[in-house]
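Incident log, support desk, overnight shift.

02:14 A customer reports that sequence design results differ from what the structure should imply. Their input is reproduced verbatim below. On-call engineer (initials T.W.) acknowledged and began investigating.
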């Protein structure tokens, strides 16, 4: 068995583990800091909305003997707008210019053809109205709201309402961080970004539901035992599924990282950037929130239940009594050498008691 597999087995059996739930205030603080940073980035910088949401024209050219930077300068000079120029795999260029209407698009197309030394008819021009992007955004918000409502209802039925609330908080946490990253790095928000954001919702819930399922099994007849509190059982559930969560997240991140860094970075595929960045950040945030946010939050909510409070008191009282008995036993063992009689005076196996007349000898005679 590999080291990772051996570690997973030991985590599953409870032989080793990390106290995720016990240090939940640290994770809450980290998440709050990251979330505040994302919100500030959104408020200060805002999102770089794509042409689908602002309206404009997209010009696709055949292979031209100009660089991206040269085409950017030419397009900006012609249109008086800051364009977005991307090199396509065929060697052509995709030039996006916002705020261009039909009449202006014809002029820009003709002047681009002249400046790039290509035929105007070979340039494909597409006009995009802002109303189309607005419709996509509204449908995305509607889908997001319906999805979250269905998730809450399902988790409340399959598990319990506390888990549904915790999963909803984790989802909002993941979406906020992902959108905040887009604001920080300045990536363009396109329809592909919206698709990516909606896609990560299922991935974000996957690890959370896996841990919740383990927790549901572990809390059966929880009030009939006095070994573990609810928080400790929740922590054991996280540890028992930790390796599985890491494996699934890494396997999911690898192809997405390929799309982001190779497909988008080296090949210059703009749409891949839009989708892959949201997927990459969302997957990582989802794995984090399932371990550090969702399950500790469930433990916090559950520990407020009167039955769980009573269980915690019983568990702590039993441990205190066991510690007291252990200390008493150590004290008794520690006094034995002082109270014992000279070597050979007591028979083997005799019980040595406190110092006193005739005690610890075969008889009471001096």
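02:41 Re-run completed on a clean worker. Output:
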């Amino acid at each position: 068995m590999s080291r990772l597999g051996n570690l997973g087995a030991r985590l599953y059996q409870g032989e080793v583990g990390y106290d995720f739930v016990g240090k939940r205030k640290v994770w809450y603080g980290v998440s709050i800091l990251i979330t505040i940073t994302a919100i500030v980035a959104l408020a200060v910088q805002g999102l770089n909305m794509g042409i689908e949401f602002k309206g404009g024209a997209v010009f696709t050219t055949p292979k031209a003997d100009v660089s991206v930077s040269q085409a950017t300068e030419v397009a900006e000079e012609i249109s008086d707008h800051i364009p977005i120029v991307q090199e396509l795999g065929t060697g052509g260029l995709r030039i996006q210019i916002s705020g261009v209407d039909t009449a202006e698009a014809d002029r820009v197309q003709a002047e681009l053809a002249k400046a790039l030394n290509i035929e105007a008819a070979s340039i494909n021009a597409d006009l995009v109205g802002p109303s189309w992007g607005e419709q996509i955004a509204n449908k995305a918000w509607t889908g997001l709201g319906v999805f979250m409502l269905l998730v809450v209802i399902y988790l409340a039925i399959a598990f319990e309402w506390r888990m549904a609330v915790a999963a909803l908080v984790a989802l909002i946490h993941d979406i906020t961080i992902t959108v905040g990253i887009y604001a920080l790095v300045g990536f363009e928000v396109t329809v592909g970004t919206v698709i990516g954001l909606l896609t990560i919702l299922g991935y974000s819930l996957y690890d959370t539901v896996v841990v919740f399922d383990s927790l549901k099994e572990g809390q059966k007849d929880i009030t009939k035992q006095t070994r573990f509190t609810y928080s400790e059982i929740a922590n054991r559930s996280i540890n028992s599924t930790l390796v599985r969560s890491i494996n699934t997240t890494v396997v999911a991140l690898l192809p997405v990282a390929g799309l982001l860094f190779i497909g988008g970075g080296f090949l210059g595929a703009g749409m891949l950037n839009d989708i892959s960045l949201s997927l990459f950040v969302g997957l990582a945030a989802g794995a984090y929130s399932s371990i550090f946010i969702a399950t500790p939050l469930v433990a916090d909510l559950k520990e407020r239940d009167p039955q769980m409070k009573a269980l915690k008191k019983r568990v702590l009282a039993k441990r205190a009594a066991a510690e007291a008995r252990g200390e008493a036993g150590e004290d008794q063992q520690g006094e034995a050498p002082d109270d014992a009689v000279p070597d050979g005076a007591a028979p083997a196996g005799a019980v040595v008691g406190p110092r006193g007349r005739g005690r610890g000898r075969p008889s009471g005679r001096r």
